[in-house]
Design the sequence.
């Protein structure tokens, strides 16, 4: 009992050192997707759920997008409801800290299930949770929470393989389902690799049953996601030819597993773009695994129990390299669904979940001679870096970035050599092994802790300055301001520019729609209408009710735009554009889908729309009055002097239905991506309602899974082999 208490105290102490200051600090997690996605979605979820409403439609991105079925919305994850009493900013901070604590606990339990000693399990848990990948993806809370759930998948897999108990089958299904409900379909799909490493191939019936139960548990989100995917660019569009290289783990970054901060955070774009030739920055901002953790992992290879986990780690590393290693393109040829996933670097999650058992198993096998030899090798590499590293970067990156990058490499290798030397000294002392956990923690804290920065609340929470001019219109974010590149955690200019330029989905904090794409399930029609090119959005956006644009001061403005306000400190200005009302009566001409795209891009005359499948209708001198404007329910009173087309500049997508004077009415795709309804002359009431396709069926299947899981949890043993 005392040993168990000491292990728990060590884990809680490590967590408290890093996260108690994080929780009490009066700052906001803002880095990359924390600001652009997590905070706006959390605010929207909190607002709707507190009103007793289930959010099914998100009106603030592009022309509106489905909410449930995006996967990344996390509507049904327990954290969403557990943290509902908190403000969105506080909820995200508590969510991150709690996820790390649960990840530490899960990693410890998984190591103990190998089995491994308590000191080894504590060390392995610290190596996993405080390793580079966790901090490197902390800019996306959904992916971080999913990653920190993986140790529970490993623990339940090991226990199910060993005992066959129904409660362990139910636990595996629950943990596996939570990976998906956290918002990461990519890690969810590859979880069978963990099951295989844990011995699932020896007990196929048990693990197949767990997979079936997992499928039932996620149906509330999975079924709508599959229904939604039929209309998204992910399924119907062509893959980016650089998909295997953009945000992949470049082979040069292998050195960063051993030595921290080899690419200074503020210079990521300047270094990676010319050196890696993939046109993008890094997905995980740090991948530092720690020299001591890697030393223990290497020592574990003498234990045959470690081999499946070594294979898992190797597979994760090779998959993360994308086209650089060749394994991922090979799998794409075998299973097309894998091409739907972006960011090959995310497969590093499986390197880390394979590393966890290796650290635990190798902890007690490692000897001081191995650590001393590794320290000597690191010192020699650090010395050699004085001559080799400058040649690597000189001429490849901007001159002003060379010195900082070379200095980072030298410092990183010297720090690792120092920690290895300290580890060798501890290994040489009798009964000093428990202190190694503290040394591993110190090394990882030094190398990774800066990758969870906070911004002052006054930079994030107040309403954007331009929002008061825009009203109910949409905005086109056409500015980069003073933050054209990713910045360091200590520099919040990037956060200020994203906030004030009303980028999607940060515009949702001000209840404003922004013409752009951020959420993963981008609708194909919106993509065809507005495209990836900012100039196309600027031309077509006003047809869909985008009457304002945020531009760069000093850059040419949009044609026919008039300046409304400016923000010189961030080099931003707000311009007003000639635009159509979001809801209007127009003439309509029936065309094919291809012709609709062509006509839209050439420019539609005022008062004219094109639609697919509808009749040819003239314009009308009528008027449209908004009677209800809720995300899933819109109502209008229309007066028309002759039959005409009512066009609403909101996304056409399955799930929307319409009534005309209480009778069902057909919705036609108008102007490629909007909704159109044919209305006769006279006074009419039009209503539109949205219901997530597949939600009811998915919820019933999930309820069935919960009942089966509860029944299995009470069984003493699962009897199948």
Sequence:
């Amino acid at each position: 009992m005392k040993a168990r208490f000491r292990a728990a105290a060590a884990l809680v102490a490590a967590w408290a050192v890093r996260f108690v200051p994080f929780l009490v600090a009066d700052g906001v997690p803002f880095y990359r997707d924390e600001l652009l996605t997590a905070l706006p979605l959390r605010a929207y979820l909190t607002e709707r759920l507190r009103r007793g409403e289930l959010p099914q439609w998100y009106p603030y991105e592009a022309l509106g997008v489905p909410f449930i079925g995006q996967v990344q919305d996390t509507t049904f994850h327990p954290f969403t409801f557990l943290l509902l009493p908190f403000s969105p900013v506080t909820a995200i901070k508590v969510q991150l800290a709690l996820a790390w604590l649960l990840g530490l606990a899960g990693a410890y339990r998984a190591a103990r299930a190998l089995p491994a000693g308590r000191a080894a399990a504590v060390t392995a848990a610290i190596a996993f949770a405080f390793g580079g990948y966790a901090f490197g993806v902390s800019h996306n809370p959904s992916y971080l929470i999913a990653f920190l759930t993986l140790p529970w998948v490993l623990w339940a897999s090991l226990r199910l393989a060993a005992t066959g108990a129904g409660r362990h089958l139910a636990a595996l299904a629950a943990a596996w389902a939570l990976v998906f409900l956290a918002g990461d379909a990519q890690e969810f799909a590859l979880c069978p690799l963990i099951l295989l490493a844990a011995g699932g191939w020896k007990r196929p019936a048990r693990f197949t049953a767990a997979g079936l139960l997992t499928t039932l548990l996620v149906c509330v989100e999975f079924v709508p996601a599959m229904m939604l995917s039929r209309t998204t660019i992910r399924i119907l569009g062509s893959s980016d030819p650089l998909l295997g290289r953009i945000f992949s783990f470049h082979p040069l970054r292998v050195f960063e597993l051993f030595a921290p901060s080899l690419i200074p955070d503020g210079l990521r774009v300047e270094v990676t773009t010319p050196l890696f030739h993939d046109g993008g920055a890094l997905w995980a901002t740090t991948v530092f695994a720690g020299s001591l953790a890697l030393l223990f992992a290497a020592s574990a290879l003498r234990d045959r129990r470690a081999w499946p986990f070594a294979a898992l780690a190797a597979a994760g590393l090779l998959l993360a390299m994308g086209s650089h290693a060749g394994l991922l393109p090979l799998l794409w040829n075998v299973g097309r669904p894998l091409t739907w996933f972006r960011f090959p670097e995310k497969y590093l999650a499986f390197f880390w979940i394979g590393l966890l058992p290796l650290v635990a198993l190798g902890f007690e096998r490692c000897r001081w001679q191995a650590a001393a030899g590794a320290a000597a090798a690191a010192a020699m590499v650090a010395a050699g870096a004085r001559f080799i590293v400058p040649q690597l970067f000189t001429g490849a990156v901007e001159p002003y970035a060379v010195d900082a990058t070379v200095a980072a490499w030298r410092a990183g290798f010297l720090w690792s050599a120092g920690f290895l030397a300290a580890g060798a000294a501890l290994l040489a002392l009798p009964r000093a092994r428990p202190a190694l956990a503290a040394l591993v923690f110190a090394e990882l804290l030094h190398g990774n802790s800066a990758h969870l920065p906070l911004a002052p609340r006054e930079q994030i929470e107040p309403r954007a300055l331009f929002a008061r001019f825009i009203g109910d219109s949409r905005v086109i974010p056409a500015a980069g301001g003073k933050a054209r590149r990713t910045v360091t955690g200590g520099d919040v200019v990037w956060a200020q520019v994203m906030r004030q330029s009303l980028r999607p989905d940060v515009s949702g904090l001000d209840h404003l729609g922004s013409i752009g794409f951020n959420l993963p399930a981008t609708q194909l029609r919106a993509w065809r209408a507005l495209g990836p090119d900012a100039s196309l959005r600027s031309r077509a956006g006003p047809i869909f009710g985008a009457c304002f644009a945020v531009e760069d001061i000093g850059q040419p403005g949009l044609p026919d735009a008039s300046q409304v306000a400016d923000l010189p400190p961030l080099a931003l200005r707000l311009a007003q554009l000639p635009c159509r009302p979001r809801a209007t009566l127009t003439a309509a001409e029936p065309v094919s889908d291809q012709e609709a795209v062509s006509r839209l891009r050439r420019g539609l005359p005022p008062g004219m729309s094109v639609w697919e499948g509808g009749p040819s209708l003239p314009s009308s001198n009528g008027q449209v009055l908004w009677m209800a404007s809720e995300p899933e329910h819109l109502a209008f009173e229309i007066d028309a002097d002759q039959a005409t087309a009512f066009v609403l500049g909101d996304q056409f997508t399955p799930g929307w239905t319409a009534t005309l004077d209480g009778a069902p009415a057909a919705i036609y795709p108008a102007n490629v991506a909007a909704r159109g309804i044919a209305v006769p002359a006279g006074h009419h009431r039009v209503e539109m309602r949205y219901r997530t396709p597949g939600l009811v069926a998915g919820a019933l299947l999930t309820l069935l899974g919960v009942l089966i899981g509860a029944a299995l949890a009470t069984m003493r043993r699962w009897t199948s082999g």
In short: The first helix runs from residue 2 to 24. Confidence is low (pLDDT under 50) at residues 237-242, 483-490. The chain is about 50% helix and 15% strand.
